[in-house]
User: Fold these one by one.
Assistant:
Number 1:
Amino acid sequence: MAALIVVLVVLAVLVLIGLAMAIRIVRQFENGVLFRFGRLVGTRGPGLRFIIPFVDVLHRISLRIVTMPIQSQGIITQDNVSVDVSAVAYFRVVDAVKSVIAIENVNSAIDQIAQTTLRKVVGQHTLDETLSETDRINLDIRQILDGTTTEWGVEVTLVELKDIQLPETMKRAMARQAEAEREKRSKIINAEGESLAAAALGDASDTMMAHPLALQLRNLQSLVEIGVDKNTTVVFPAPLMSTIGELGSFLAREATAAATSAQSSPAPVAALGLTESARVPEPNGAPETR
């Protein structure tokens, strides 16, 4: 009786172990590849799956996108500049059977071919192209990788250059070049501003030549602006001095004309406080009337 109980217990344990080995769970983002006696049977979708222990082997393959960093590679560009370039690749398995049968380790294989492809593509471009045309380089690398990995049941969805390390001498040279470019743009902008200012001044001078009164008003405005600062020394511009000279000449002419009018008419003489007859003293002291 005791021996029967032991046998039953052993059989129950064996059954439990067999069930544990026969039950497989394929998750939603996975696809199962079933082999029986080493021969491909087919694929199994997500859910609870049963296999024959010691006969069947079920490989579960993830179908999610995998992010793979590509190690920094020392690359010599087409113009003989040494740079260190690192990138990142995104890929996913689209054919689970090929990813198991066609290649042993798909992740390691993609990593190695991505490094060699990165070195090859970047080496075909100059440094300026590598820095400015990263989108085209990314597309070239992805197309080459995708063409190779298609036979493995893998699709490369995206490749991006992550970092480009330049030598210190090249960094200093590029900094000097950028500084020279900024100085060049600054000089061009200053020259354009001076050209516009000169054209505006030319138009203003033409206007003032056509209207002399505008020049005088501008000079007076300058005097007002100078007077606000309470300066002890005032420098008069030459046009203002000529204007003052012309004003003095005008006043002198007006005074001469007034004197001539006074001599020709008696009324202005009376207005100046003179009598109609002037007394001139004679030599003996007696006054003489003229």
Number 2:
Amino acid sequence: MELAILTQSLFMRWDNDMVCSNNKRMRPYTSSLNSELGLIEYVMCDKTGTLTQNKMEFRQCSVGGNVYLDPMSGCLQPQASNPEVSLFLRLLAICNEVVPEKQEGRHELEYASQSPDEIALVKGAAANGTILLNREPETLTINHQGKEEVFSIVANLEFTPERRRMSVLVRGEGGEYIVMSKGADQMIQPQLAKDDPTTQEAMRHLDDFAEQGHRVMMCSARSVPEEEAQEFLRRKEAASVELEGKDERVAEAYGMLERDMKLVGVTCVEDKLQDDVPGTVQFLLAAGMHVWILTGDKLETAEAVARTSSIVSPTMTISHVRSHDKNGVEGEMR
């Protein structure tokens, strides 16, 4: 048996189909690796960075009921005098945690962030004449269509897996307060003002983007009276020192600010599949394994990626289970 395992490991090492792009061959370090691989029945993988390259490209957006097909070409800039487009570009440049960095000997700014999505959107704003120039702990500077604007960062409402959105409260040079928010449509839509006439058309565009397999986000904003901004800061400060129920109190303070928002736009970011994903998936399926995608993306996006990666075939019947509790799931599965 040991001789058979050794021989199998040698064949694995010599296999020319298991060589990385840098010509590094597979090297099994555990003698039982092949036997353990044979026991696998289910392969569960994340979408972003596993099936896809995690290289985000800003492909489309919806602003004011209009779809712009290639934002990186600067197609929004001729419309920058439109208040809706102007606010959208400002939001992309401001509502993020991106840090601009100037490289020695180069004129172009480099952008650093933990989120490739945010970098793609900030670059998209820059391609249309709204450039994030500098970020300090309490201020940020943008160049909006040739004019520098400095904003004070009053509060950051950070992104968390539970919130699935981020917001920022800023004060302009004229003293006006504005809250900007972007995130998953399921989290942004309940915050929108009920009489916002652009929501229905934007949702249709968002669904179209998602069905193409792209990552989508909604953007919203509203002006905040100074008295409300100060009350929010007071509640947020009081909640931050609570020993019990701190998370609930902070969420209540955030909810005070993130309400009656105006829809600003929808972003569509493409994340291409890794090389040879469909073929690899088919190999696993032929070996009798079940391949699952685990993702927090929109359902339509996940379905589109499942199809293009061949996890879902055209002949399969797809059922949607939307319940969030055990009893509900069991009922839908019957």
Number 3:
Amino acid sequence: MEFPSARLGGGRETGAQLVLVRVDVHFCGVNFADILVCRGQYQEKPQLPFTPGMEFSGTVLETGAAVSTMKEGDRVIGVSGFNGMAEECIIDQKTLWQIPERVPLREAATLPVSYVTAILALEHRARTRPGETVLVTAAAGATGLAVIDVATNVLQAKVIAAAGSEEKCRLAMQRGAQSIVNYSQGSLKEAVRKLVGSGGVNVVIDTVGGDVFLEALRSLAWEGRIVVVGFAGGTIASMPANLLLLKNVSAMGLYWGRYKEQDFPVFSRILSSALQYCQQRRIQPHIGAVFKLEEVNDAFLHVRRRKSTGKVLISLK
């Protein structure tokens, strides 16, 4: 969305401007997608120049004349497409949600991408049931820890966390996983087999791709479900279709951004659920690092070099 003016009241409002809200941004999430879009490697390619930043939290400074869902001073989170890493953001009221009183702005900024992805993957796509076993890859990342949090504390599932270092595995265990696998030390499939036997796992949430995806696919139980969330490892695997047939398993994708465009009621309901879970303390987001706006390149490098665990935020205040 282009900024129509420095302030909403800078002139006569058009129809589109009537529903805009000007927000004082406090925190903005750093996502791998922000790095990809800046490098021209993301599915969506905004016209240059653009400001990265897909999610943010802040307070309302000003509202258009037709805004009915919030007022000046309200605390909000927003899903901005690509313009959130700025001191102020002008955005349609439809893509703002009020933050419950007991949820801090810093914590709220972690929810729109990582936790909506986790809930969409586990609930909406995989239909995870209580007592089922969930395998999550890249388990110490922002999405991985969100999957552990939601699966364990909301859905009452059992989680096997797979990550690429002992340090990351320990963090995943501390955050609620029942078992851990370091896939840098050998076969993921064999490690999972040792944990659950030949029966396999019911659900896989994969953000890595490549060989990790294929081994996770081979770890599924009868009528298991694998959800493809991303390809952080840099390789998109080709999947032998016979692997789906042999155990009647399902492979499905999850593209977070398309839900906002194609099925907004589902997107909005799940983000509202994440806010409610956070207010109830059923989920507790893990923030791994906070950078200042002038340190944004350091923040990107921190994520790109796989040094980050949990959510990385930019602080605008």
Number 4:
Amino acid sequence: MRAPGGEVVITGGLGFIGSHLVDAYLATGHRVRIIDSNAGAVIDGENYDADPRCAVIRERIEDYLTAGGDFTGVDRVIHAASYVGPASILSRAGRLGHDIIGSTAPVIEACMNAGAPLCMFSSAEVYGRSGVLDEKDDIVVPTQYNTRIEYAVAKTLAEAMVSNSRRHGLRGIVIRPFNVAGARQSRAGGFVMPTFVQQALAGRPITVFAGGDQVRAFIAAGDLTGFLTGYMDLALQGDEVIINVGNPGNAVTIMDLAERVKSLLASPSPIVRVDGRSVHGPHYAEAESFHKIPALRTATDLGWRPRIPLDELILTTADYYRAREDRRAVNAPL
């Protein structure tokens, strides 16, 4: 990383992951330019508006660049803007691929024009299968093209664009995050951790989909941002483009997660098995990766390690939602 004080561009900087990245880069002495359409915002951004180290631009990144915006002189660009979440993406069916590629392509071009390093956020959904998933593994594309598959295929294409653009001078890497969770994550996207926590705090039934045998390895947002602020430069110097970032030590079945949330929060909530389609509609689908555990190779070779255990992650999320409502989930089912 260059000397503190340089400017970092974060697309989607008012979203869950994006806002944690903003905070992390501010804490390391950087200025931050946030470009966010508010489509997935979990905060209003007023604190950033009042911070002289921040510039908040509330429009789509592709519109910003089309209107003449650029990345000249910036320290780096973190492209985190995207529709995300198994429930949130449903309304974009048939358009989701265009959304993802339509924002990523101009970001790549603008980074190349400005000589700015790029980190693009992809998704562990790209693997398309269960197991311990390594960056070198082949990707599987099922033939049933539901919305989750459209999302995964679009993210895969965006990865390929970053990788191939390195031949033309782009300094870029791709992060495949595995089940990031923590404060600010909204249940409105269909994310399981904030849903279980908010249900437990409200004494409502904790709703487990698909029997609860799915395995997820949850990583704290703070561990994820620590990789970017501490190890992105080392990653850019290496040959590996695709980097898994997750916490296999936090792997847990969804049923065990429900029981853990209930116990840690001393909640009276019953745990009930339900069909996800009864909550999110007939087009809701479970991930192809029923068991989704990251193989950490490239990230740990660089010296990074995840540190925040699952119980701490649950309690941090609960503390956040004891103090405030879920901004995005006012009309979402609980």
